[in-house]
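Budget justification, computational time. The allocation requested in the original proposal was used primarily to generate structure tokens for proteins on the priority list. As evidence of use, we reproduce two of the resulting records. The first is shown immediately below.
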Amino acid sequence: MVAVSLMQRPATYLVTSVSLRATSNFDPTPYRPTLYRRATFTDSPESCSVPSLRFFMPTAASLMAESPKLDPWDVASSAYATKTEHVTRPGAEALISWLDDLSPLSHANAFALDNGPGTGVVTASLRSRFPHLPIVAADLSPGMLEHIEKKQLPQVQCKVVDANDLHPIATDTFTHSLSTFMIQFSSDPRIALQEMYRVTTPNGTLGLCMWGEIAAAAPWVETARLFDPDYVYPHTWTPDWGDQHTLPRYVADAGFKDVKLRTVRARWDFPSPEEVFQFYFESKNPEFIRGYQPWWDRGMEGTMRPIFEKIVRERYGGGKEFDAEAFLIVATK
């Protein structure tokens, strides 16, 4: 099946043909571009100079329906929306404010990319704060994007695309390219940054937010080390992608200039210990599953989960004393 989507900018549409195929074994790149070109319209899509192409906007829901096996982030999307958004929002809001100070998002020609938006914390904030800003929310997970589509935000287009292969999107497209808490989880963060450089306009602005640590993992590490003193948390990223000293160099290596970094501390204030348990064990977050699933597979859940809960209650204020470190990074092309 071939789906053609339209990315609108004044007088120009980006025409993208994406080949859809069934996924298996969590293939990280299930939707590869087979064709892209620019087509200029005089008045409407019907007057396109490429009449042989049938214009049709695929939704995340339609892609979900066609894929028999879901990506892990699709599985996590519903729980992510209810149990994770509140911990990513403070960093995202701080990044948007800093980026807007450097390069106003209210400018008439501004065009924003939310790369790896998840369920739409940044997208919704941008829409609320800058009502006339056109936004593209691009994510590999149709399940995540479906949550954004349901919000029916004006001037927001959702695109299923791999952060490491944004080629359905034309070079030099966005004045502002943002990504919060995604780059370090991508299969190759260096390529993801290079792709963001490619799609950003000359003199355009990059904004990133990355974890330096995962606060909710701390009580799990304490729990696991009661059984294995040498236990190391199996992060999905290498340590240097959570290091404030190496991150600016990686951004510069991708081609960006004037790289600046700020460290922020965010308190994950859970209302109760039960909220922490739900966040860690029931959010279906692939990052957390990597931590506890190998133990659960060995039949340890009944033994370890009560210990985890006891540690949260006694050492982390019942969920109100989680401090997370995050890095905000801005740069220009």
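The second record produced under the same allocation is shown here.
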Amino acid sequence: MACITLSRNFTHLIVGGGTAGLALAARLSKHTELNIGVLEAGPAAWDNPGINVPGKFGETLEGELDWQFETVLQQQLGEKKQGEANGGGVQRDGERERRNGRSLKWPRGKVLGGSSALNFMTWNRGCRGDYDAWATLLGETVRDGGREGWSWKGIK
């Protein structure tokens, strides 16, 4: 593990340079009295074609930019049997059924931009209730779109 010495003092250090960490850093940096730092485990892969070229779909998965996590065994999925696309794995043991389960790959980005850098340039907007709850939590008035723009209407 490398040891890095920082030559600046930060008032706030955000761990994780994924979408949420970078959005938080951008918001906090609007306060000029704060000195914001972002710490990311992976590289800044500005010119990586696997991230920037849509036709390279999937090339970054299971590579150096992916943490290569897997889920714990999911008993509801059963075991994946040869020739089965989505598993099954129910074994009969007398009168009972027994499911052995299997794990799934769970790609997570180890790169500046986080998992969003691996998501093949796709975007899904969250649900209205989540955005409005964040706005309320931050003291915004949801009805008027929120002062800071965290509500559903405020992020348009």
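A brief technical remark on that second record: Residues 85-91 have pLDDT under 50 and may be disordered.
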